[in-house]
Design goal:
The complex is a heterodimer of chains A (292) and B (365).
Chain A lengths: L3 H11 L9 H30 L3 H10 L1 H34 L5 H13 L2 H12 L6 H6 L8 H12 L1 H14 L2 H8 L4 H30 L2 H7 L9 H10 L3 H32 L5
Helix pairs in contact in A: 2-14, 3-14, 4-8, 4-9, 4-11, 6-8, 6-12, 8-11, 8-12, 9-11, 10-11, 11-14, 13-14
Chain B lengths: L2 E10 L2 E11 L4 E5 L6 H9 L10 E4 L2 E2 L5 H4 L1 E4 L11 H10 L9 H14 L15 H14 L4 E5 L7 H18 L2 E6 L2 H7 L2 E6 L2 E6 L1 H6 L4 H6 L4 E8 L2 E4 L2 E5 L8 E7 L4 E4 L8 E9 L4 E8 L5 E7 H7 L6 E6 L3 E4 L2 E2 L5 E2 L1
Parallel strand pairs in B: 3-8, 3-9, 6-7, 7-8
Antiparallel strand pairs in B: 1-2, 1-4, 4-5, 9-10, 11-12, 11-14, 12-13, 13-22, 14-20, 15-19, 16-17, 16-19, 17-18, 20-21
Helix pairs in contact in B: 3-4, 3-5, 4-5
The chains are: A mainly alpha (292), B alpha+beta (365).
């Protein structure tokens, strides 16, 4: 190994082109293919959304947001995200803490369970809640007796959103916390810190960028979720429609301008999320101390 | 503060890390736990610190006679230095050292001014005064370990526990830092236990050395005691280089090649194998036979880099290879080269039969 290194350096000094570089035509055609693909599948649809939304001018575009049903859908989406994201933040941190810092039986089972929402179709996630809480469901009669409605109401939408977005924070944190190990926590403990102090002063600062990243992804999915929410929502206009569901209704009613205007709102959210995500990644990488 | 470990056993699954270990640490001493990896030394240290707990019902730990077996690490008030430092990576050096003071409950927490004074003092003690505002990632390994020591000392622990404190450092820094630790201990006199697998480090720094192997303590003693009077073959092997010649005990004599060792008080006259151990420097080499008892051997290799000259030899009779250390003067006079034929005279040996050592004054060469 050691004797091979100098000769490699000498060779690379003699040849200006690195050995991994392909001929120019290969590079150009690969880049062209990649750009064409990106343009066709990402850029064109994105432009189309905004173009269709603005097809009848800015007045018609903004009028779409003045509609009461749209505002109600926006409100419901924000409520669902506002409940689901903080809850999943707490669940995610707790689950990751548990898995990364302790050894116990059934740890792998727990990791598998956390991944469950990713591995089942969102429609099935929604159906589970219908089967549990619906009128013909397991707990339906009991809930009906007490006049509690979950399916085709806001609680069902929130529950479905929580279920579908559960893995984001935990999945982000588990590898990070496992890599960091528990040695800093041990150091804090022998210095007399309580468990709570250790969490706030040592664990949390070490995971904050990963946590923020998970929260951003979780929020994006919470606001954009369609399948699971669609099953439990019942599509009651002005009451149980979230933005993605509302867009579908508008589109089915041939109200294209309004449909694409609302869709552009979700696109904007996605772009902001992307920007935030990039910033967090950059910031996290910048502040992460290099390892020996 | 004195520490007593009484009958501690620890198992991880089916692995027995510690087997009924007893140990007393005297107040103010610097004790080394020495052993190969897997000998249980780090586990013992972590159990003393409260980071690990012994098997339920297996034994007790006392600090100054007070039972702390069931106290959490945060309540034992032991200073602990980790092999890989475990500095808080998002805090400056200053905040790292101040951490133990800042997390105290309000009633006992010093004021900010007091904390600042104390941290500055400790930075002086570990000779890192200008680096208070740096982050751990900006420090060298030696500096990080000194910060870790300052952090451990900030809470004024009654006992200092160090887990392979210099294990991750390069040889030169390692040497400097262990002398520095010795001086520091002479200044502050806090009862200290440090874990190491490096016998040279243990023998140089510690007041007493505890040699561990496979979850048991093999021997406890001052560096001189364990080096000069090893309790068994393991300790003898572990503390420095050693050569082994196979011999036979018969009729009060041990025969090693042509050398005969008189055993004055053999426990038995039964003929049985005897292992003859000797250190590489307890040997004399001559070019001529010089009387009876010299073992003829061939020089295989001479390594003369460093303060001692290491000669590798091979016996003519049974082809056993062994090493001899010469000082530079002896080497110059002998002027050995590979393939030279010489005679080896054992000057000091240890004889074990069935892993039992014959008493040193019971035999003469």
């Amino acid at each position: 190994m050691a004797s091979a290194a100098p000769s490699r350096i000498a060779r690379s000094a003699a040849l200006p082109v690195r050995s991994t570089t392909e001929p120019a035509w290969v590079r150009r055609s690969l880049i062209t293919v990649a750009l064409l693909f990106l343009g066709l599948f990402l850029l064109v649809p994105l432009i189309a959304v905004f173009a269709e939304g603005l097809a009848k001018g800015f007045a018609a575009y903004f009028k779409a947001f003045a509609d009461e049903a749209t505002l109600s859908a926006l409100k419901l989406t924000l409520i669902a995200a506002a409940i689901a994201v903080p809850l999943n933040l707490v669940f995610g941190v707790a689950a990751a803490w548990c898995i990364a810092k302790f050894d116990f039986r059934g740890k792998n089972l727990l990791i598998t369970l956390i991944d469950l929402p990713f591995s089942v179709s969102p429609v099935i996630s929604g159906l589970i809640y219908v089967l549990l809480f619906g009128a013909q469901g397991l707990l339906g009669p009991w809930l009906m007796d007490r006049d509690i409605q979950i399916i085709f109401a806001v609680p069902g939408i929130v529950l479905a959103t929580i279920f579908v977005t559960f893995p984001f924070v935990a999945r982000e944190l588990i590898p990070l916390m496992q890599a960091q190990g528990r040695i800093e926590e041990e150091a804090a403990l022998v210095l007399g810190a309580s468990g709570w102090q250790t969490f706030w002063r040592v664990t949390l600062p070490n995971i904050k960028w990963g946590l923020l990243y998970g929260v951003i992804l979780c929020n994006a999915r919470a606001m954009g979720e369609f399948g699971a929410v669609s099953v439990v929502s019942g599509h009651i206009r002005g009451q149980t429609n979230t933005l993605p569901l509302h867009i579908e209704i508008l589109y089915n009613e041939y109200n294209f301008v309004a449909a694409f205007a609302v869709a552009s709102l979700l696109c904007l959210l996605a772009l902001v999320t992307l920007a935030l995500k990039t910033w967090v990644e950059w910031k996290g990488a910048q502040l992460r101390p290099e390892h020996d | 503060m004195s520490i007593e470990v009484r009958d501690i056993t620890k198992t991880f699954g089916t692995f027995h890390a510690l087997k009924s270990v007893n140990l007393e640490v005297r107040s103010g001493e610097l004790l080394a736990l020495l052993g190969p990896s897997g000998s249980g030394k780090t586990t013992l240290l972590r159990i003393i610190a409260g980071l690990e707990f012994a098997d339920t019902g297996s034994g007790q730990i006392f600090f100054n006679g007070e039972d702390v077996t069931h106290l959490q690490a945060s309540q034992r008030k032991a200073g602990f230095a980790f092999q890989h430092y475990a500095l808080f990576r998002h805090m400056t050096v200053f905040e790292n050292i101040a951490f133990g003071l800042r997390v105290r409950p309000k009633e006992t927490r010093p004021t900010d001014a007091e904390i600042s004074r104390r941290v500055t003092e400790l930075l002086q003690l570990v000779q890192l005064e200008p680096l208070g505002n740096r982050y751990p990632s900006q420090l060298s390994g030696g500096q990080r370990q000194r910060v870790a020591l300052a952090r451990a000392l900030a809470v004024e622990p009654k006992v200092l526990l160090l887990d392979e404190p210099f294990g991750a450092l390069d040889a030169k820094v390692r040497k400097e830092l262990r002398r520095w630790l010795r001086r520091l201990h002479d200044d502050i006199h806090v009862t200290s236990i440090f874990v190491t697998h490096d016998q040279e480090e243990a023998l140089e720094v510690a007041d007493r050395v505890v040699v561990m192997n496979e979850g048991r303590i093999e021997q406890i003693g001052t560096p001189t005691e364990v080096y000069d009077h090893p309790a068994n073959t393991f300790v003898f092997h572990f503390l420095g280089n050693v050569n082994l010649f196979g011999g036979r005990l018969a009729e009060g004599k041990v025969h090693v090649g042509d050398t005969t060792i008189q055993v004055r008080n053999p426990e038995t006259f039964d003929e049985k194998p005897a292992s003859v151990y000797f250190r590489p420097h307890d040997v004399r080499i001559t070019r001529q036979p010089e009387g009876p008892g010299g073992i003829p051997a061939r020089v295989r290799h001479v390594n003369s880099a460093g303060p001692i000259v290491r000669v590798e030899l091979q016996r003519f009779d049974d082809q056993t290879r062994f090493e001899v250390d010469l000082n530079r003067e002896q080497a110059r006079l002998l002027n050995l080269k590979a393939e030279d034929e010489v005679f080896v005279h054992l000057e000091k040996v240890r004889i074990f039969t069935d892993d039992k050592q014959l008493q040193a004054d019971d035999y003469t060469i």
